[in-house]
Structure formats: C-alpha cells, structure tokens
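Before relying on records like the one below, remember that each one covers exactly one chain. Contacts with other chains, cofactors or solvent are not represented anywhere in the record.
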Amino acid sequence: MGMLIDGRWSAQDQRIASGTGAFVRPESSFRSFIGAADGVYAAQAGRYHLFANAGCPWAYRALLYRSLKQLEPLLSISLTQPAAGAQGWTFGEPEALLGALHMHHVYTAGQADFTGRVTVPVLWCKQTQSIVNNESADIIRMLNSAFDDCAGVSEVNFYPKDLVGQIDAWNAKIYPAVNNGVYRCGFAQSQTAYDEAFDLLFSTLDDIDEHLGSNRFLCGERVTEADWRLFSTLIRFDLAYHGQFRCNRNMIRDYPNLWPYTRDLYQYPGVAATVDVEAIKGIYYGSREPRILPKGPVLDFAQPSGRA
C-alpha cells in the first residue's frame, strides 16, 4: 500500500514478513492518551476528530465505539473511500477538517517528517493540530471512558473492573489467532506460514464456538470490549476473509453458536447502522485488481439470534 519516508509518499510495499514468510504487523506510531496525567490531551467535547474507514476492521472498532457510547456530537469524523489506491487511503476529494486528499496528508499535517505506515483509525486533536493516537485498541479504550463526564454520553462500560482479567485474557487469545490471524492467512508468503495461521485461526474459532454454547457473551452475560473486538472480525469473515484471505475451512454462518452470537451483537443498540457491507467488500476486493466486488454472500444479520 505504500508508506511515508521523511514526509514523502513512497509506493514501496509496507507489508512485513518474517524469515519464514509469516506476516508481522508493525507497532503503531502514536500512542498518547486523552486524559493522561501529563494533561496534554484533556477530555473536551468537540476537541477531537476521528479519521477512519468503514470497511477496515481496526478503524471500524473506533466507529463502533463512537456509536455505542453516543459520542457523535462530541467527536467529528472523516471517512476515507473503502478501497485504497496508489497513494494509500484516499478521501476522493479534500475532506472537511484539514482539506486532506489522502490519509498521508493527515500524517504529515501532524508531523511533517513522519516515516512509517499510514493507517486508520487516527484520533486527531484540533487544538494542538496533532495525532493523538493511531492504535485502535488504545482508541476504543479511551472512547469507552474518557468522555463519560460530558453531557449525553452513554454510561455503558465495556471494560468493567470486575471483568478486566477475563477481558484481557480473551483479547490476548483472539488478537493473534483471529483479529490478526485472518491477515496472517491472507498475507502469508509461504505455505508453512499460511498453514500455521489457518490452523490456529480455526482451532480458536472452534474453541470460542464451544464456549458460546454455554455463555451468551465471552465473559458471561455482559457484553464487553472482548466481544466488540471479536465482532469486528466476525462481521467481515464471510463477506471477505473466507474468499479473499483463503480462510475457507468454514464460514461463520456454519457455526451453531458463533453465527447467532454475531447476529446478537449486530442487533445490539447502535451497531447495525455502523456495518457497511459494501465498504467491507470494497476494502478487500476493491483494493486489488481487477477491483470487482462480489455480489454475495447474502447474509441476514437481522435474523433473530435466539440468544436473549
């Protein structure tokens, strides 16, 4: 997809593979926090802006939390087009906040000599004209609680203290095997690397499906951050990963518990409006030649889950 080098866009491929051909995801570059003790980024309504892509699972997490926590009036957004182009994520026309045409313009607006990957989501501070954070896991943790003192924000807490240990354990299991596991399948550069990622992905999905046979959500009866992080992958699985990333042992709709669970989360208040099926297909199929979007599969996420 390309990257920035000393503030200049380069078309060089940014995908990283280990010596075995396994895909390795680089660390995010900006990791500041709203409400941190240094006081640089205070939690203030209207001060921050989110740059995102509705099809990308990492950016989608932030869009999802913006809706779940009812942060729309506090946190403005700019969305890129679904498919990346020769200059990476693009808005198609200058977006409203910075007048950026491509996401790499956002990065250089925050740091003129930036070197690294140009990813979404990006949490931007309008006051300091800087990037606060571009790590989705950090951003959803901030959105979960940083603005709770602002008027109109939902009081729901997806990272409650009594479940922190369980949530962290699920995240540690699901991220490498499922969230990043589908990418380790899709971007593998050797048969061995693909086989290892594939086997871990489906063994983990099998385990989760079995667990959900006796639990409505991952941590019991309460939906948590771990569920939303998993959902961001599950909602895209049959639409994209099964075909484009060769994750094709099963579809999620083949699972007796994962499929109702996915529909259950989709039907949670504020979620359905955040799921853009065409954007999901667009990011995975529209970014690769010949850029033909598949018409199927047809999935009814609104079908009653039977899990209430």
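The chain has two domains: 3-145, 162-285.
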